[in-house]
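Contributing new records

If you add data, match the layout below exactly. Sequence lines come first and carry their own label; structure lines follow with theirs. Keep one chain per record. Anything else will be rejected by the validation script.
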Amino acid sequence: MNATQTQLAIDDLPADVTLSFALDSKKLDYWIKTARADGHEVLIEVPMEAYEYGRMKMHPDTITAAADAKTNLARLETILSLASGYFGVVNYQGAKFAAEKSAASPVLGRLSEKGLAFIDDGSFERSALAGIARDTGLRYARATGPIDNRQTPADINAALMDLEAEALEKGAAFGSGYA
């Protein structure tokens, strides 16, 4: 959403850091290609219905729990057609959608059919996504959680230290964060 900050992230973050891009990014395809050329893996953020939906302005292509499969799949296709070069999608919000298996199943099934991955940012308390991914053969990973719930350098550093401890204990770990 901010060209200067996006270029700084691409240039300054190590290639190990996967970058996600919002649908409304100006020059979305350009940014994805630029990030890929610098060695970053790339995701597209898919707006999904939060429990607060209706009290806040959401993207017109938000995938919702109440919409029928045809509507949600059309929205997903619109989102996926905006760019190329990404290996998967990451949720942008979506707690309500993720809890509704009947709504989420067709969407995750379509992602699986396309050979894409779904990265869960770890922010959902209740989610049917892991089970659906397993049932559909979708490549799926869930972050331990957001590292930037509290946006102070000390809190983010503490979250990164926790993530590092988990990686040392389990051999790997990943967290999510948003600019």
